[in-house]
Each structure stands twice: as C-alpha cells, then as structure tokens.
Amino acid sequence: MVEKALLSSKTISTAGTLFFNAVIDLWVVQIFGSAKILGNTMAFTTLAAAICSFIGGYLADSSFRLRVLIMINAASSLVCGIAFLEQKQLIGKPLTVYLLVFLLNIGSYLSSPLFKTITSISVEKTRIVAFNRSITFASQLCTVLIPPAATWLFAKKIIGLEGALLLNGLSFVLCALLMVGLRKADGVKTAGNSNGYLGTIKLIKNSGPLLFMALSGFILNFFLSGINVWLPYFTTKILHNASAYGVAISCQAVGGIIGALSIKKIKLDTSLRVERLGLVISCGLLMAMLFAISAPALILAMFFLAAIITRYNIALQSLIQTNVEQKYIGKTFSTTYLIANLALPIASFLFGHLLDFSWKWLLVVVALGLLSMNLLWIIMKKRIIIRNIE
User: Fold this and answer.
1) CB–CB of 34/237 below 8 Å?
2) To 10 degrees, what angle do helices 35-60 and 343-357 make?
3) How many whole angstroms separate alpha carbon 55 and alpha carbon 133?
4) pLDDT in tens, 47-63
5) Which positions carry the signal peptide feature in this UniProt record (predicted)?
6) What is the pLDDT of residues 280-319, one digit of tens each?
7) What is the C-alpha to C-alpha distance for residues 278 and 375, in angstroms, rounded to an integer?
8) Confidence at 253, pLDDT banded by 50, 70, 90
9) Which of 133, 159, 134 is nearest to 146 (CA)?
10) pLDDT of residue 124
C-alpha cells in the first residue's frame, strides 16, 4: 500500500515536471533565441536546488514531514494555476520566467529529501534497492514517453506553455491527494530528531565513501549542467529539429532504464568500476560528436551516459539509505544534495555564456570534466571502503 502510493506519487510528479521542462526549454529558445537566457533560466532552476537542499534536511527530519510534502505540492499547483492565468505576462520578460521556474523548482527540490526520508522509514531495508530500482525504472519510462510527446505537441503548436502549466499543476494536485492517503500509514510519522548539520557534516567528512559521493556529485552535476544547457540549443540551432530534443531526452531515459535494469545482472561493485569505466567511454562518445554532427551520434552518447549516471545515482541513494543511521538520513541526503547542487546555478550560468561562444568548446570542457571523476577516485581510493550497497 505505502510502496504503491509512494511509487505512484513520484511517477506522476515526474511526468508533470518532464512535460513542463521539455516545453519551457523550447519555449525559451523560441521566444528569446538566446543561449544566455536559456542558461540563466536553468541557473535559476538550480539555484532553488541549492537553497532547498539545506532547508529540506530540517523538514525531512521533522515529525510533520508528510504534512510539509502535501503543502509543497499544493503550493506548486497554485503557482502553476497563477502562471496559467497570467501566461501572456511571461512573453518578453526573462525575469518573470526566471521567477516561475525558481518557484516551481523550490517545490521539486524541497520535496526530494522529504520523499527519500519517508522512503527510508516506510520501506523495509531489504527492499530499499529494489524500491529505488522501481522508482528509477518508472521515472525513466516517463522520460521515454513524455518529452517526445511534449516536444511534438509543442512543435505542431497543438499545446503551448499554458497547456504545460495546466498539466504540471494537475500532477501536483494528484501527488498531494496521494500523500494525504498516507497520513495513517505506519512509520510515516516517525518522530523527528534534533541532530543538526554539524554532526552530519562530521559524519560525511569522516566517511570516505560519503565524502567521495558528495564531491563526485558536485563534479558530475557541474559538468552535466553543460549537457542540459547544450542539448536544447544543439537540437534546435545546429540540427534544426526541435522534435529531436524530445527524442534525445527519450534516449537518455532508455539508457537510464537499461542502467537500472543492468544492476540485476551487473551488481553495484563497491569500487564502482563499471561506473568509472563507463564515464571514460562516455567522454569518448561526447568528443566524437565534434566530428560526427548527427542525430545517431547524439543518441548513442546520450543513451550511454544516462545508463552510467543512473547506476551511479542508485548506488548513492542505496549507500546512504542502508549505511547511515536513521537519525542522520534526512540531513545526510540534504547535505550531499546541497554540496552537489551548489554546482548547478554556477555551471548553468557559465555554460550558457560558453555556449554562445562555441558549442564545440562546451563539449570538450564537459568531456574532460567527466573524465576528472577517475582522478578524484585515484586521490581518495585509500579512504573509500564501502561496507555494502545492496
């Protein structure tokens, strides 16, 4: 019952967010025609992540975490409703667009540590990896189906930004209703604790695996932000095909699904050998696109990179949920996300400006950045001893 409600809520939320994000990215490129404004939009999106990662830890460790999660979804639906009614005010006003994406992503990122803490409390420890795998599979399946549909509908002018706002708002309403149904579930209202961030930071600092995960999360988020800024620009301005953006996102989703399913056959190794080797191969595929400017090269690179990143993310979530004391879980998630998310607004802003200069140089920087993950492992490998992931 609880697992189904959590899975349904997360899937619906993901679907609504994916539809809105696919449309807003193309809408910004279409209306403003500027890589800088696209980068700035993503910077405001990720600024919300950095701010909410800190606040989310306290809320996640509180006894009223479920109530907060319901209120966040209700507030986000209200923001969508207001923007839907005042959609014309967004045209020609970048600051208004920035505010919109900032407010909506505050809800999204604030919900993340709460949802994961509720999961760690409500789902049996032996079911954590399987549940995370199911969540990832459902999310990636949405990513296969939603963005292509959204971009096709947008390209054909069947649906615009107002339609995306309406659908996103409805998804928040459904999530809130599902969360209301969990109020009487056992364990969801487990009392909070008074452990602060200083104890959590000390825990991460003294734990080689957690410190590596936090630092690698920062590096990955920084350079993956470059891909996020580059992809809608590359498909619309270089390939001259807005629908290709949705196809590329779907290829990432298929890669994510394969990455999640591959864990059944290729277990998560405590040294993350598969993931580190995969990043090296991904760098090569990105560099190849400097010479093979084509949709097939794009599809292959996005597919493979997504598969590797998905395996890494599942390893991170499972590591924390199975190895960290219950009293620290909320703030551990929050702190690691805060460290990782600090990279996002900075990277989105910088890569937006770099993209206006040269999309090829952006790919080179991103590829070399991802390659640096192995350098981090070499530096820290003596401290990285993981008890278990599964």
Assistant:
1) no
2) 170
3) 27
4) 776 677 667 666 766 66
5) none
6) 888 889 898 888 888 888 888 889 988 888 887 777 666 6
7) 14
8) confident
9) 159
10) 67
CB contact set of 201 (below 8 Å; sequence gap of 6+): 335
Interatomic CA distance for residues 291 and 49, integer angstroms: 35
Give 385's pLDDT tier (boundaries 50, 70, 90).
very low
Residue 83's alpha-carbon distances to 24, 33, 76, in angstroms, are 12, 21, 11
Tokens of 149: 């549909």
Domain 2-380 belongs to what topology?
Growth Hormone; Chain: A; (1.20.1250)
Q: How far apart are CA 194 and CA 62, in angstroms?
A: 9
Question: What span, in angstroms and rounded, lies between the C-alpha atoms of 167 and 229?
Answer: 24
What span, in angstroms and rounded, lies between the C-alpha atoms of 85 and 25? 20
* Interval 138-188: pLDDT, tens: 877 787 788 778 888 888 888 888 888 898 889 888 888 887 876 655 555
Angle at 389 between CA 109 and CA 221, to 5 degrees: 35
- Whether the Cβ atoms of residue 235 and residue 244 lie closer than 8 Å to each other: yes
